Amino acid sequence: MKLISWSAGALAGIAVAVLALSSLASAQETTVPTHILPDSLNLEIVDGSMVPDDCHYPSTITDTSRFEIACVTMPRIIGAEISSQYIGQIGQQGWHQGSYVPGGMTAVRTDENNCRRVLNIFPSDYPPSEENSQITVLWFALDRAPRCNQAQPG
Prior knowledge:
Layout lengths: L7 H23 L4 E2 L6 E2 L22 E9 L3 H14 L3 E6 L2 E7 L5 E11 L8 E9 L11
Antiparallel strand pairs: 1-2, 3-7, 4-5, 5-6, 6-7
């Protein structure tokens, strides 16, 4: 049996590499989001869903000056269950079903200024070009501008 002899420099190099890898893994764990739309709705990411690297947003909701946007993906097989949990979180915050719109629906809530806030919710295949994909996406687009009724002159 032959014994391997390690120099102090080699051992130090291995130790530095192990520390670097563990720091990298730790940093990656802390960057995984736990909520979407944290500055407004602050929805907790439901088990079984995730925030993808690329949401493939439709062009109609990519104007971030108009919308605060977010998305989550999920396996199609449990998509209805996961989607209902997101809708439940929205309902717990005082939102209720608004209108059906092409490709989705809205949720609405009246704010403290008696203005209506509108959240657009669009389900789709993921990626969108892949019909009947195994993964689905929920796109959320919160209108940044509340819809307030203007007081009529008396």
